Amino acid sequence: xxxxxxxxxxxxxxxxxxxxxxxxxxxxxxxxxxxxxxxxxxxxxxxxxxxxxxxxxxxxxxxxxxxxxxxxxxxxxxxxxxxxxxxxxxxxxxxxxxxxxxxxxxxxxxxxxxxxxx
Length: 118
What we know:
Order of helices and strands: EEEEEEEEEEE
Helix content: under 10%
Radius of gyration: 13 Å
Low-confidence stretches: none
Mean pLDDT: 97
Distance between the termini: 40 Å
């Protein structure tokens, strides 16, 4: 059974930082592209960042470029999202996802809430 478990969300003031983690089990972690998505109230789900299987290629959404960093540790089956210079508009539920390609995600975590107060 595949599980993706996110942690690290919480309440932070604007300008602050958070680091999200997602631990995967039940799959060959290094065989999957990993992504972080978010969904804010009243908005569609948005791809925040993704990372290739071995971590040599990353992609960031325009709204987070220069502020967020995605990384992974295949030995620990974990993907991270370092979020700096947080803004109120970053408030959302953040989900990690695993997929066979950068455009297809098969497995999803339950999400972790990030709230940025202005």
